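Side project, low priority. Logging it here so it doesn't get lost.
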Amino acid sequence: MFRAGRPSPSDTRNQLGYVAANERHFSLAPKILALGHSYLSSTPLVVSALPFLDQVNAKVHESCSIAVLDDDEIVYVARSTRTTRIMSIDLKPGSRLPAYCSSMGRVMLAHLAPADLDKYLDKVKLKPITERTVTAKEKLLQILDAVREKGYAIVDQELEIGLRSIAVPVRNGHGRVVAAMNVGAQAIRVSSREMETSALPHLRAAAQELGTLLYAD
């Protein structure tokens, strides 16, 4: 038994951001990826996602990944096992990217509660990653409004020159957006229009099927 006034280990982990808690349940948070693979082996999202990522990859022959939002960044939690590297950085589970200029990040930002989005925009520094990166908050808000309306996001070489990506939300049993799934491709080979016509239908179908397997928290 812990002494009165001393936080329990679970309280400490919660304060450090390693677990998320509500009145009844504790669950591992994305930050746990920095410590090891417990998050990957115990999270229904990750365990369930891999077959769908491979399914999309097999149909569009492009990289397919899934990520969650953690603070100001997205955290990659799974990628297609058939993925070939298309970025200059090697994205693995646990890799982080800025949310504001990534397709999966924009999908999740677009579905934040207005107050949470305001808090994000107040603290984030919109730095130009490439010459195409949107760094004006007013423009970013317009883009997020369009993402929310269309149900998907396309980022064209804002994160890395030569890379285009398209992402859709993954919703749990309550309809809440808990993650995003994307397809990335070389801009020289695949236009934005081609991503909408060829990759988007498969992404949407996979995200919807995956969502039916997730617990409603």
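Brief comment: DSSP finds seven helices and eight strands in the chain.
Revisit when time allows.
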